[in-house]
Amino acid sequence: MAHRAEGRRMSDVTLKDVAVRAGVHVATASRALDPQRRHLVNSETRQRVETAAGELGYRINVLARSLRKGSTGMIGAVVADLGNPFLPPMLRGLEEVLGPRGYMTAVSETHEDPETFRRVCEQLIARRVDGIVVSAAHVGDSDFISTLEKSLPVVLAVRRVSGGGHHTVTHDDVLGARLVTEYLAGLGHRRLAQLRGPEDVSSFAGRARGFQEVVAEHDCTEIVAHDRAGAPTTDEGKRLAAALLTADVGRPTAIFAHNDLMAIGALEALGEAGLRCPEDVSIVGYNDAPLTAHVTPPLTTVRLPSNALGRRVAAMMLGQLDQHKEPPTTVALEPELVIRASAAAPARDRAAG
Amino acid sequence: MAHRAEGRRMSDVTLKDVAVRAGVHVATASRALDPQRRHLVNSETRQRVETAAGELGYRINVLARSLRKGSTGMIGAVVADLGNPFLPPMLRGLEEVLGPRGYMTAVSETHEDPETFRRVCEQLIARRVDGIVVSAAHVGDSDFISTLEKSLPVVLAVRRVSGGGHHTVTHDDVLGARLVTEYLAGLGHRRLAQLRGPEDVSSFAGRARGFQEVVAEHDCTEIVAHDRAGAPTTDEGKRLAAALLTADVGRPTAIFAHNDLMAIGALEALGEAGLRCPEDVSIVGYNDAPLTAHVTPPLTTVRLPSNALGRRVAAMMLGQLDQHKEPPTTVALEPELVIRASAAAPARDRAAG
DNA sequence: ATGAAAGCGCTAACAT
DNA sequence: ATGTTAGCGCTTTCAT
């Protein structure tokens, strides 16, 4: 822009310049260049304007347009951590449906920090995005989300907040955990444990609940870890699993890790304890992250329909953008158990014990 | 915004509203709310303005501000695929240095599609971002990048383009490949092969070159795959490796895969051919992606200083933003060989062959 | 079919 | 220390 360059830069070419060169009024130039209104202008004039624009290297100033029109055509996507394997497919799903409708998606990270989360959201509102997709919420963020909703359309993706009342699309984490736990119980396991992720994230809370429901229904025993993961990482998984393996109430025959990283950590802990998977202890993960099929043993885990989730989120956003005043609903998409080799029937002697 | 809501929304509160409520002129309100100019206003008046702003839930309209000031405080980051493991740390590096300087980073994906690439860049320029970080370039994009540079500061990250002449920060891929290949040669391997990624991406081109340099220097033989990967995926790696293992010129004793996914694919191909790694064939990957330490055997690979790269990129961007007219330079950051278990000395009989 | 004029919300130069 | 005025680049009535 002018303030920074000595000479005029291409982006400094303005609609007025184009109009002058084409010998028309800016209003006409504006019409000629807008797909929506080009039919209002003589096709010959339009030609002239288009040529002029091309020759000058004109690029519309979306800032000015947005200011005038009151909308930016931007959707902000706020995610906790781009390292999460389900995010790329989800973001792609968003683009796939928002893009053709003329919206551009901009992704920002919070790194799971509440303050950054708020700052990023405020920032996006200040920039007048037309809507925000929040995939970084913690369960206690309900009031804050309500605040945001006073300013613009919001859709919660992946993570819900307590209380409901917001437009949200999540994975069905309770179901996912039930799938895992029922599979384990069906295999004959009775002494089960879970490696829990941070409970202020609805995904982990849901998995914990699904697990416990099934444990209760099948009269299994939950071997409880005294601790829970600070962050759901490989190291934390290893630490928690190690504690579990030496529990004074006896060790579990199967472990449900709330995500694949912790499952891999548990695998490591097993190895260091001289135990084998799945012969001595079965392990199941969650997310079906890349490469989980290639660890040893290949990890049984849960696959999430993340691309579909992104598309649903986008559809819900469009609903709000288009003024369909649908009441807030939360839809939960069904995950799928991927059976590989890290879980098997418990050894005879242990099952009997 | 007004056009979409029936009632007035919080974001529709304007500076004028604040000024009226505080009983001052908008200009005064503007000053009072700007950290840079608050000292120009009586502290008592400032109080009144701040209170009024707080009560009304005023949020500055960055669109209007940017239009007036001629800069947006936004930096666009254009990446090929968020699934790439080196991107999150790099993006974080960007934020870490750009954030404190008042810039916000917005990430967009191209999915490796040239048309999307151009569209996204144009879009960002239309939105008047202050600069673009391009991490999705193909080697032939030099002219296009030059075009962009006419409009705004550009820094190339990770991938360079042919011809040079742009501000760029990359990983030293030639060095990385040399590290791998020298390690392999040092182990005693003489019959080497590489699994090449798409050659229109500088990273892969560099790795191919480093590999071939060392092969020539150590009088090794490159067993050439007739094919190359369309996309550097596990499946492609498996396909290429399978072909290599049945090559009529005899199979290699070591394979350098241009990334970890292809290396894992090669591991699979080995397994299906009844061969063991590293006893029969050594395999080395690239990127040190998550979980590569946990596959069997743990993958020897190359670790990239991606966070540092992001920070350097940001610094280079700030240099341009701050008008230091440094000439375009390209800096290449050194990667590091991570020795695990997928590469070992070749078996005696094969080494002799 | 085109032009004139107003204004989106803000900041900067210039008064006072 | 505060108010006045102009204008960033565009779109949108309203005239013609």
UniProtKB/TrEMBL annotation, chains A, B:
- For the keyword tRNA processing, the answer is no
Gene3D superfamilies given in the database record: 3.40.50.2300, lambda repressor-like DNA-binding domains
Q: Which SUPFAM superfamilies match?
A: lambda repressor-like DNA-binding domains (SSF47413), Periplasmic binding protein-like I (SSF53822)
Record keywords, A-Z: DNA-binding, Transcription, Transcription regulation
Say yes or no: keyword Oxidoreductase present.
Answer: no
**InterPro entries, per database record:** HTH_LacI, LacI/GalR-like_sensor, Lambda_DNA-bd_dom_sf, Peripla_BP_I
The record places domain HTH lacI-type at 13-69
Entry's PROSITE patterns?
A: HTH_LACI_2
Q: What is this protein called?
A: LacI family transcriptional regulator
